[in-house]
Amino acid sequence: MDFRRVGFSPFSGCTIRIQKIHYFYMSVKPYTQEASKKAQVEQMFDNIAPTYDALNRGTSLGTDIRWRKKMIAKLKPNQPKQILDVATGTADVAIAMARQLEPDRIVGLDLSAGMLSYGQKKIEKGQLTNVIELVQGDSEQLPFQDNAFDAVTVSFGVRNFENLEKGLAELLRVTRPGGQVVILEFSKISFAPLRWLFNIYFGYMMPLIGRLSSKDPRAYKYLFESVQEFPAGREFTGILRRLGYKQATCQPLSFGIASIYSAFKPD
């Protein structure tokens, strides 16, 4: 579970206000306001890399693993052979896809060298170096040619893009015509009692646990704050359609705590 927030129903009728969304979304950063969001996100994940996997498993009680399996299942009908996993972190999704989909090649890309170093150890331990390659890079300037991948995945990472539309446009650029983009991200719970309980846990208890475990007093507070202004549900699928994606859908998970977004590049 890679910690973010929840609010109104992802299917409530709302007007997409791109400029307002972009302004508030850009204003949420892990640390000071001086450095760019991109630089601060890289620093934050470098700081929490040593405890990242343990905190995810422990605080989510394994829910994040089930969510990722459902995300990967979206790709099975198309049997992609060349896959890009953006914001791969410690390579959990890349490793799971290698085992469940048996592709020819997976490239995992992330800003954080610290996270990638832990991911590389897991890949080597799982004897998957012949399938998975890890690359440090920027989601908004992907170092790949147009139409290079059959599928692109992002698990709990689009919320950290500095420029959301630019990042999503890059995902589309490197996907082949007819290829699929699947995104797993926290969204907004529609059931009010659950929303209140989750916000208490996510907004107050998780930052305390993160502070004690990772020794980064801001990281897990940011992870809650960054979801406050992030578009979810219809807002997010609307942005995908605006950028040229087709068949954009949203599947809420666990009462809307998270959502899987699936879309395709036009043929």
Description:
- With 267 residues, the chain is an alpha/beta fold.
- Helix content is 45%, strand content 19%.
- Strands 3-2-1-4-5-7-6 form a seven-stranded mixed sheet, with helices on both faces.
- The protein is globular, with a radius of gyration of 17 Å.
- Mean pLDDT is 84; it is low at 1-23.
Radius of gyration: 17 Å
Largest sheet: 7 strands, mixed
Helix amount: 40-55%
The shape is globular
What labels would you give this structure?
single chain; 267 residues; alpha/beta; 7-stranded mixed β-sheet; 9 helices; 7 strands; 19% strand; disordered N terminus
What is this structure, in a nutshell?
Helices cover 45% and strands 19% of the residues.
List the helices and strands and how they pair.
Blueprint lengths: L17 H10 L9 H24 L2 H11 L8 E5 L5 H10 L3 E6 L2 H13 L6 E5 L12 E7 L8 H11 E12 L5 H23 L4 H10 L5 H9 L3 E8 L4 E7 L3
Parallel strand pairs: 1-2, 1-4, 2-3, 4-5
Antiparallel strand pairs: 5-7, 6-7
Helix pairs in contact: 2-5, 2-7, 7-8
